[in-house]
Design goal:
The complex is a heterodimer of chains A (732) and B (657).
Chain A lengths: L4 E8 L15 H19 L4 E8 L19 E3 L4 E2 L2 H10 L10 H15 L11 E8 L10 H9 L5 E7 L16 H16 L3 E4 H8 L13 E7 L9 E9 L10 E5 L14 H7 L5 E13 L7 E4 L4 E7 L2 E4 L15 E9 L12 E6 L4 H17 L1 E8 L7 E9 L4 E7 L17 E2 L5 E2 L8 H13 L6 E2 L5 E2 L10 H15 L12 H4 L6 H6 L1 H11 L2 E2 L2 H6 L16 H4 L13 H10 L4 H20 L7 H17 L3 H16 L8 H9 L17 H9 L1
Parallel strand pairs in A: 1-2, 1-5, 5-6, 6-7, 8-15
Antiparallel strand pairs in A: 2-3, 2-4, 8-9, 9-16, 10-11, 11-12, 13-14, 15-17, 16-19, 17-18, 18-19, 20-21, 22-23
Chain B lengths: L28 E8 L2 H4 L15 H19 L4 E7 L16 E8 L3 H12 L1 H7 L9 H15 L5 E8 L8 H16 L2 E9 L36 E2 L6 H10 L9 E8 L2 E8 L11 E4 L6 E2 L1 E8 L5 E2 L4 E7 L2 E4 L2 H8 L6 E9 L13 E5 L4 E2 L1 H15 L1 E8 L7 E8 L2 E2 L5 E3 L2 E6 L21 H13 L15 H14 L16 H29 L5 H16 L24 H9 L8 H10 L8 H14 L3
Parallel strand pairs in B: 1-2, 1-4, 4-5, 5-6, 7-15
Antiparallel strand pairs in B: 2-3, 7-8, 8-16, 9-10, 11-12, 13-14, 15-18, 16-22, 18-19, 19-22, 20-21
Helix pairs in contact in B: 2-3, 2-7, 3-4, 5-6, 10-12, 15-16
The chains are: A alpha+beta (732), B alpha+beta (657).
């Protein structure tokens, strides 16, 4: 979609640009640069080799035309910072140091413009001097406080409008008057007013854009949308009936294009900080040359992923053995059985299909459950320039629409691709009509979990109750009704003509994360200082994170009555924790039987290795005594060690791990983190020092991998272990 | 080096979002079937003429269910475990030489099922002799306490640290003990299981002369909530329905249906506050009720030994410059930018991603349901249901909201952050009403659904279309509508349960055959293929009718639009001949195709073509029309438009027209 483009920025660097005006806390130049950098970094981020840029400074201390003009005379105090080329991060960094306010007021903006036109000309023509196809643009940012010789302006305007190589002109002025935007600078300097007048006339003559900087900077926050070219994912026939076997069948040639497709934020790749700086040894083996091209960074090295392949060693049960990729064959898992399928035979498991879009039947629109669709959507349109298809599909679309129907079809997009069921719904807009397809679930895609009803309660005996604390009473129902109606968004916004319009339509919302990451990458490109704080996201990305404040204010009293009717109480954190010390709160079976009473309310339960977890939990449940808890914990710890000690290979690690988890959870709940922490410190040492009958490091990796380390203050308020300490525990 | 072990991350992790590790336990599920083998359980229903009547004894129905569930779980939960324990058998065998657990017979050990397990079970289900040998009841049955402790041991050793361990108990005996101390022992053992976070799911079967009474015994054994998910909504008591043996709908079908509803362990995807307005929050949990099931990817196997083995892969990271092995913690993320890399420190990454606030479902306002057209769909929806764990009163407020939305046909617009680091999404919050089938079984749960909406960035351009495409006429639309009305799905509803995924089913059928060294079937069952015969029968007539109307309309309209489209036609001429060579193009001509009985079909009739020719308008016919006309008359369709016209004229002449 995007063709070649060339953009020249003319930036006024005159001494007055270094001033802060009108109560702004940054200089005019800093303000202007906000705009310029945003534009430049946006282009750099695309990584396009065909997007050329150049920056020309006007009213600079020195003059350097970089060979653009044959004669330097008349072009004093103008600096061409680079030829037209693709900009890279290094160019940005280099340029940053140079874009500083000068100490001079000398330098003619019109001359700089002439240089820019010349530069543009020579860089966008072929060897024979013929202009190539380019989108040419010159963007001027100035405060209009310099001296200008407007004698050549008409010639330049002619050149800019040249139909062979037209140039788009954008001029942004610092505090320029702009009635459209509604800005007028008070007490304007007469010379500046004159310059504004001249420049405005000139830009108008070139059919360019003339605006005030404030507006441009403001608009930077509106995210720009990428519009990828539509690529069809299917071209074929929509059929009703089987045209090969039956006489009566319909066939319409259609094409399918994406309608929605989630925009993804740029992805980061993994690197590792170089450690070999300056050291030799391996350095001649380093692949710096390969990596160097892609990532000419001094402190980061690319990461390679090494795959290892292991099998259970048939000779030594319980151990693993490495195998080479060359020895391996392809296959599938059926349960835990490995099924070997020779490479040549891999197709045997594939269902043979041919590309097709076949109507299975029709469903009623009002019966359709809107939550069933499982995918993004696609447009289905008639084959281009096929009038029969146009007529056929149009009748299909309108018949669906008028009949209040959706079609259900079986779609195979390519040969031997698995079939999917799609819903075809009609979409008729003022300027186009089409079918929209979206994927439907198969039987296997539905998880049939059951949930109790929300409008009534069933008792164990099967009685239906309609008044219950879990059911809304009349007050709550009424308050909710009023609130939902009060918070209506369908007419909250205004359209261009000021008529009520729906608030937050999809086309008015921007993907927050996509633009946030793009924005921050661009920000970092011009703010390399690591001590700077990452800025917050622009407001426009946060707009829909909360209900509109006007609406909230309006509905405030209704919300208050809803709160009263709801009577929602936050569960205090304590209840979640300690409860179990109280025997009466132990969970009871459905019948409510008190099992402890049945067993004669024991005050002591012995830890039983054959029933480890339950006996531990029961031992803790029957006592409040610290010593008894400690002894249960000790007994548990002993059994955990025994499990590890007696484990053949890794066979008992799972059980040991479970015991560790239960011990950790229970002692956290009893607010005795110390007991667990003492154990796990000791346990770690034993595992790493082979004190539990051989090399048990694998067990430590599992404890670590499951995060069953120290209980820190975040988990238990009474712990004396800090989060950092708990973190370090895993590392060393 | 290789990190973590058999930890399987939540399926929601497919997005590249970085997750807070601590929030994920290993979420595997282990199901142990315990099936009662007693004289009454083995009793077959009396012979009956009715085809739908039962043929299975309760034990054999239970085994069939287990067999079906096993096959199903290999597809849907390939890493979850399953085992089958028979109790009350004469034989005692736990496959480990130990005979502590008298009259317990471990048919298949608790593990990820193997092809052999499937075969064993199938043999038992299909081969009566085989079944009879094994299914011999002990005359005193088995002690239920023993069975429960046996299950305890199996879960402890075979499925340690699983987040979900469930005992499926199938029995028709509602009082399986004789003395009080036996009952006390059973009650204690049941509590052990509860403390071990194992759930007992009871599948009771009523006998013809005795209906199963849970209160006699089992209500002392079964706990109201699942220990691993204490605030999960309490299952409806009626789910564990008393299945009546030998009457009405078959025992097998009833049992299958109640077991199916528990086939997958219910796992909450997230637990979040739902903010109705500033200062009003309730607690909800999210569940994935829709999830595209795909078959396993191919893997590497090692065939060097006696037994084919699955190869385990592990990945380690190496610095490309020094080949030094690096730990995950050393990795830094960098973005490509302008031929270089832009990096951020880990806490900066956190600031970047978490700037949108904490995970929440926040209502922004309400709109009519019509504001969520089908095209505004980007992904599957998530089901939410209230939870009292964090906010007391959540359920009633949620219920009030759900009922209001249903009543007013409205949806909520919500700002949704599923978890830390997740991308914020705008979603439609849509109510769903409870739906039950004719047996009273829940088909769709009541609750709310979060439907992710597209942002402007996610909406693609409509593809370029020709300037003035042909549009339908009311008459033609009506003809099409008749066809559509005729072909409505039962009840006008798409019912997913009628459409098993043909690709998935075929894949596992073949794989199973290969795993068991059996003959490979050659015809797949594919219920997604339209029923062409029925279509022909139900509306063949209407389709032909439409075909005729189409021809007429087309001739009229295309004539009218000829002036507009001089150029496109010329372009197409170059493309068409290629088309003509492919056999598929034969159908081009038949666009909307409808043959009349007499074989004189769509496209223009000889008469119409002759008229057109006489008026000197034949050159205004499109290439497609000409080709269609020719090919239906057995004439060649190759060549440029001029050639086609010439051929048409020759043909007409030969007919004397």
């Amino acid at each position: 979609m995007a063709g070649k483009e060339a953009t020249v920025y003319i930036l006024d660097l005159g001494a007055p640009m270094g001033k802060k005006r009108h109560g702004r806390d940054h200089t005019d130049l800093e303000w202007a640069l906000e705009y310029v950098w945003d534009k430049i970094t946006t282009t750099v981020a695309t990584g396009r080799k065909t997007a050329l840029m150049s920056v020309i400074g006007c009213r600079t201390d020195k003059s350097d035309l970089n060979g653009v003009m044959e004669e330097a005379e008349g072009y004093e105090n103008i600096t061409v910072f680079s030829e037209l080329k693709q900009y890279l991060l290094s160019d940005i960094r280099r340029l940053q140091n140079k874009l500083k306010p000068s100490k001079t007021n000398e330098g003619d903006l019109i001359s700089a413009l002439a240089v820019a036109v010349q530069l543009m000309d020579s860089a966008t023509q072929n060897k024979a001097g013929k202009p190539l196809k380019y989108d040419r643009r010159i963007i001027i940012v100035t405060d209009g406080r310099g001296e200008m010789d407007d004698g050549d302006l008409d010639d330049i305007a002619m050149k800019i409008k040249d139909t062979e190589a037209p140039i788009e002109i954008v001029l942004l002025g610092v505090d320029f008057d702009d009635p459209d935007y509604g800005y007028k600078e008070e007490d304007k300097d007469a010379a500046k007013a004159n310059n504004e007048e001249v420049l405005k006339g000139f830009v108008e003559k070139c059919n360019g854009n003339f605006g005030t900087l404030a507006e441009a900077v403001e608009q930077l926050n509106i995210p720009r949308l990428k519009q990828p070219r539509p690529i069809p994912s299917f071209k074929g026939e929509l059929t009703l009936g089987d045209p090969q076997k039956f006489d009566a069948a319909l066939t319409i040639h259609v094409e399918r294009y994406p309608c929605t497709m989630l925009a993804k934020p740029p992805t980061a790749s993994s690197f590792v900080v170089r450690t070999d700086l300056g050291t030799s040894g391996l350095s001649d083996r380093s692949s710096a040359t390969i990596v160097g091209e892609d990532h000419p960074m001094s402190d980061l090295a690319a990461v390679r992923h090494q795959r290892d392949y292991q099998i259970d060693d048939p000779e030594e049960p319980g151990t693993k053995k490495n195998v080479e990729l060359e020895e391996l064959e392809k296959g599938y898992e059926y349960g835990r059985t490995a099924v070997h399928i020779a490479e040549s035979n891999l197709n045997v498991v594939k269902l043979e299909t041919e590309p097709s879009l076949r109507i299975v039947g029709f469903a009623r629109e009002e019966e359709f459950k809107r939550y069933l669709p499982m995918s993004r959507t696609n447009y289905i349109v008639p084959q281009r320039t096929n009038q029969m298809a146009q007529l056929g599909l149009s009748s299909f679309i309108h018949a669906l629409h008028e009949g209040g129907l959706y079609a259900v079809a079986r779609l195979v997009t390519k040969e031997n691709k698995p079939p999917i069921m799609v819903l075809l719904s009609p979409r008729i807009e003022p300027d186009f009509e089409c079918l929209i397809d979206v994927e439907l679930p198969f039987e296997e895609d539905m998880r049939r979990y059951k949930f109790p009803p929300l409008d009534r309660k069933l008792t164990v005996s099967g009685k239906v109750i309609t008044e219950h604390k879990d059911l809304p009473n009349a007050d709550l129902t009424a308050a909710m009704g009023a609130y939902v109606d009060a918070m209506d968004l369908s007419t909250f916004s205004k359209d261009e003509d000021g008529n009520p319009d729906e608030y937050a339509k999809p086309e008015d919302t921007y993907a927050p994360l996509v633009h946030r990451i793009n924005h921050i990458i661009r920000w970092r490109a011009t703010h390399s200082d690591p001590t700077l704080t990452i800025p917050d996201p622009p407001e426009i990305l946060m707009k829909y994170s909360n209900p509109p404040s006007d609406l909230v204010e309006r509905a405030n009293s209704i919300l208050e009555s809803l709160k009263v009717a709801s009577d929602v109480k936050k569960v205090p954190p304590k209840v979640k924790g300690r409860g179990k010390r109280n025997r009466s709160e132990r969970e009871k079976p459905i019948s409510g039987l008190d099992i402890d009473a049945l067993l004669g309310n024991p005050t002591q339960v012995k830890i039983d290795p054959a029933n480890l977890v339950p006996s531990f939990k029961q031992a803790l449940a029957v006592t409040d005594d610290l010593a008894a808890i400690q002894s249960a914990a000790d007994a548990m710890a002993k059994e955990i060690r025994n499990l590890v000690k007696n484990s053949v290979g890794e066979s008992a690690y799972g059980r040991a791990l479970e015991a560790v988890r239960v011990m950790r959870d229970e002692l956290t709940e009893l607010e005795e983190p110390e007991m667990y922490n003492n154990f796990v410190r000791e346990f770690k040492k034993e595992l790493l020092e082979d004190a539990l009958n051989g090399d048990r490091r694998e067990m430590w990796w599992r404890v670590r991998g499951s995060k069953y380390g120290l209980i820190d203050q975040k988990r238990s308020l009474v712990s004396d272990v800090t989060e950092k300490e708990a973190d370090d525990f895993y590392k060393t | 080096m290789a990190d973590a072990h058999d930890r399987r991350w939540g399926e929601e992790e497919e997005e590249e979002e970085e997750l807070d590790e601590t929030s994920y336990k290993s979420i595997k599920d282990a199901v142990l079937f315990a099936i009662d083998v007693s004289p009454t359980m083995l009793e077959r229903p009396p012979a009956s003429e009715d085809k739908k009547a039962d043929r299975d004894s309760p034990t054999s129905a239970a085994l069939k269910c287990a067999y079906q569930l096993m096959q199903q779980r290999i597809i849907s939960n390939p890493t979850d475990m399953m085992g089958i324990l028979l109790f009350g058998t004469e034989k005692t065998d736990l496959k480990d030489g130990d005979s502590t657990f008298q009259n317990c017979y471990l048919l298949s050990d608790l593990d990820v099922p193997s092809a052999q397990d499937v075969k064993r079970l199938r043999d038992l289900v299909e081969d009566e002799e085989e079944a009879e040998k094994l299914l011999k009841p002990n005359k005193d049955g088995a002690s239920i306490a023993t069975v429960l402790f046996c299950a305890n041991q199996i879960f402890t050793t075979k499925a340690p640290n699983f987040s979900s361990r469930r005992l499926f108990l199938v029995t028709d005996n509602d009082y399986p003990v004789k003395a009080k101390q036996d009952k006390d022992a059973a009650v204690t053992r049941a509590r052990d299981l509860y403390d071990l976070d194992c759930t007992i799911d009871l599948f009771p079967i009523s006998r013809r002369d005795h209906s199963f009474d849970r209160t006699r015994f089992y209500d002392d054994l079964v706990y109201p909530t699942s220990p691993s998910d204490p605030d999960a909504p309490v299952a409806i008591p009626s789910t564990t329905k008393v299945t009546k043996s030998g009457e009405g709908i078959s025992l097998l079908r009833q049992l299958l249906s109640s077991i199916n509803s528990k086939a997958a362990a219910r796992r909450a995807l997230f637990s979040l506050p739902l903010e109705l307005g500033p200062g009003l929050k309730i607690g909800v949990k999210g569940y994935l009720l829709l999830k595209r099931q795909v078959h396993a990817k191919s893997c590497y196997v090692w065939v060097g030994g006696e037994k084919t083995q699955i190869v385990q892969q592990s990945t380690s990271h190496m610095a490309d410059d020094t080949a030094r092995v690096v730990e995950k913690t050393e990795l830094r993320k960098a973005y490509e930018f302008g031929g270089d890399a832009i990096t951020f420190l880990p806490d900066e990454v956190t600031r970047i991603r978490q700037c949108f606030g904490d995970p929440v479902i926040r209502i922004i306002g309400f709109k009519p349901i019509s504001s969520v057209p089908i095209w505004a769909n980007t992904n599957k929806a998530t089901f939410i249901y209230p939870s009292e764990a964090d906010f007391i009163g959540s359920t009633r407020v949620f219920s009030a909201l759900q009922q209001k939305l249903i009543k007013s046909q409205k949806m909520g617009l919500v700002w949704f952050i599923a978890r830390r680091n997740a991308s914020p999404t705008l979603c439609a919050l849509l109510p769903s009403e409870e739906k039950t089938d004719e047996d009273g079984e829940q088909q769709m749960p009541p609750g709310l659904w979060l439907i992710p909406l597209p942002y402007a960035d996610d909406i693609r351009l409509f593809p370029e279309q020709p300037d003035a495409p042909l549009k339908t006429t009311d008459a033609l639309t009506d003809k099409m509508r008749i066809i559509m009305e005729q072909l409505q799905l039962p009840g006008g509803v798409y019912d997913p349960s009628k459409y098993p995924n043909p690709d998935l089913q075929w894949f596992y059928r073949i794989l199973q055959a290969m795993a068991l060294d059996e003959d490979i079937p050659d015809t797949p069952v594919d219920k997604t293929v339209p029923r062409f015969k029925q279509i022909d029968k139900r509306c063949g007539e209407y389709i032909e009718d439409y075909g005729r109307a189409f021809e007429e309309t087309y001739v009229q309209l295309s004539r009218g639009s000829l002036a507009v489209r001089g150029k496109p036609a010329a372009k197409r001429r170059t493309a068409e001949p290629e088309d003509g060579e492919k056999p598929a193009a034969k159908r081009v001509k038949a666009e909307p195709k409808a043959k009349n009985e007499d074989g004189n079909n769509d496209g223009l009739t000889d008469q119409q073509m002759a008229v057109s020719n006489d008026k000197g308008q034949i050159s205004k016919q499109t290439v497609a029309v000409l080709k269609a006309y020719l090919s239906q008359r057995g004439q060649a369709t190759a060549g440029k438009k001029a050639d086609l016209i010439e051929r048409v004229q020759e043909y007409l002449q030969s007919k004397g027209m």
